[in-house]
Input
Amino acid sequence: MEKELVISRAEIARRVDELGRRISERSPDGLLVVGVLKGAFIFTGDLVRAISTPLEVDFIRVASYGSDRCSSGRIRLSKDLETDLAGREVLLVEDIVDTGTTLAWLLAHLHDRGACSVKVCALIDKRRRRREKVSIDYYGFRREGFLVGYGLDYNERYRELPDIFELKAS
Ligand code: 5GP
Ligand code: MG
Output
């Protein structure tokens, strides 16, 4: 499969710095940063180093049944948080928001677990196929197409690439 560079590591680094600055300004009292595995693992690692307010980090993992390049819309929790969310201000860090199904599920879950506020930071905001009304507080880039690299995979490959590529079916 062919892949085309769409967002370079330098652009990512610049954007992560901006996001970190903005998040720090708006959340001066500190945050619980919740990264969504596996896709957001690298973004979360970079983002927390760009935030200057006190924070804690936890991870959650959801699987959506289905493989290849579409999510099926059925979501299952495969690793829950280890932190008590009661009264916490949460920053949820997602890789990609596409239809919004996964994010809507995660937001409901975090509120169920007692979070007092949840803000969302998504690396990629894809709006064309959005089905759920979800609000994204911070986003890195708006792109369509199937993306890999910088944590994003295609059948578990390409997560380690430092830049973001679009995979082209050839
Ligand atoms: P949604 O539930 O919003 O339709 O789908 C979101 C999830 O689908 C993301 O968390 C991500 O795991 C996966 N996804 C959506 N678009 C892409 C993409 O372009 N590349 C990769 N690697 N995963 C994607
Ligand atoms: Mg994901």
The chain has three helices and nine strands. The domain at 2-65+75-168 is CATH 3.40.50.2020 (Rossmann fold). The first strand starts at residue 2 and ends at 7. Residues 20 and 51 are 4 Å apart (CA to CA).
